[in-house]
Amino acid sequence: MQKSLRSENGHLDLFVRFLHGLSLESNQSLLGGLLGQTDNSPETIHRVINNLKEMNSEDDDEFISPDRSINIFHCLMEMNDRSVHQEIQEFLKSENRSEKKLSEIHCSALAYMLQMSEEVLDELDLKKYKTSEEGRQRLIPAVRNCRKARLKGCGLSETHCEVVASALKSNSSHLTHLDLNNNILSDSSVKLLSAGLESPDCRLKTLILTDCGLSETDCEVVTSAVKSNPHLTELHLRLNNLSDSSEKLLSAVQESPHCRLKTLILIGCGLSETHCEVLASALKSNPHLTHLDLSYNILSDSSVKLLSAGLESPNCRLKTLELSDCGLSETHCEVLASALKSNPHLTDLDLSNNKLSDSSVKLLSAGLESPNCRLKTLTLFRCSLTKISCYYLASALKSNSSHLRELYLSGNNLQESDMKQLIDLQQSPDCRLETLIWKERW
Q1: Residue 441's pLDDT band (cuts 50, 70, 90)
Q2: Residue 26: exposed, middle, or buried by beta-carbon count in 10 A (0-12, 13-18, 19+)?
Q3: What three-state secondary structure class fits 321?
Q4: With the C-alpha atoms ordered 154, 156, 160, 166, is the resulting torsion angle positive or negative?
Q5: What is the mean pLDDT of residues 200-225?
Q6: What is the number of other CB atoms lying within 10 angstroms of the CB of residue 114?
Q7: 430: Cα within 13 Å, side-chain hemisphere
Q8: What was the pLDDT predicted at 442?
Q9: What pTM was estimated for this model as a whole?
Q10: How far is CA 217 from the centre of its chain?
Q11: DSSP strand pairing (234-236 vs 206-208)
Q12: What is the distance between the alpha carbons of residues 53 and 102, in angstroms, rounded to a whole number?
């Protein structure tokens, strides 16, 4: 059994099942004299069944493939022990699944049953199962029969990524959303996943690689895969410290004629001026990109100027821009205001967690008053706004050309007297503002 678990291609799986099946007297009688004399011990059979149920790889140096682990469940079935099968059936019928503890063998059985089910699972979230880390890893084969797979922080190895890659390559795969958040992936693991992404049968739309420790080599491999996959529309690279060359590769992805990325998340990626230059190029050349999140990157004045040049391009179709906690200054706001005046597609702007001066808000408000500005949602959470800032915003909203529908100002320690003009304005039938949030929500 241990040898079969360590096998890369499963060449011992059927043989091990056959050996366990020989323990049944009914099967021994079918083989007649081929076996010679046999001696059946109920105690031995009982011990074998218990050993199978408790078998795991926690003490092994190498990861055992989840696909190999499923063979343990098959061996139990060969021995006519259906207890695990029945327990999983009861688990699937249960309404409080999150409260029930699953052993490793339970997870292997569940993975097999989910794979074989005629009904496609909407979402496989390994964190929702009450089991050990190895138990969660044994559930990975179920990605072959689900639409969304959330494998957050599950200690994925190259062996596990191989299983995920096989799901991406399958012509019967329904997988459109893959979340690998908080798994430190080796170069070989990323290559396996990218090979799956490059498959013509891959239909993945959303790929989340947040905090995966991606190297420059990894980014190059991911880029190659994204270039060739016209289905991928959303890519999350949050908390991966990207080098300049890595970002150039991502820019090439944006400029690829086959790339259909609509959402690019680069939160906390240590973006430099070089990064912003190539992103600006992407904004100018890729009409598909509609959502860009650069939050938690300290941006220089020149970086924001480059980005704004991209926003002002007639080819730019960006709708949502998030710049939360980017160390924005008055110069930044002046440049952004210019972009607001010239880009009719931008509808959602998030500048939260930036310490904005009154003069900065005045500049932004001037952008809002422009007849070309179509901004509908503005988020200024924790921006150190004052009564004067609110006055400038109210002035912009009084403009006939303002399209703003939602304004979020909570976290600024504003009093009702500071907000009076905005509150009165919202209640006016001539004002388009529908949502005004300024009080703290606990």
Answers
A1: low
A2: exposed
A3: strand
A4: positive
A5: 93
A6: 21
A7: 8
A8: 47
A9: 0.93
A10: 20
A11: parallel
A12: 12
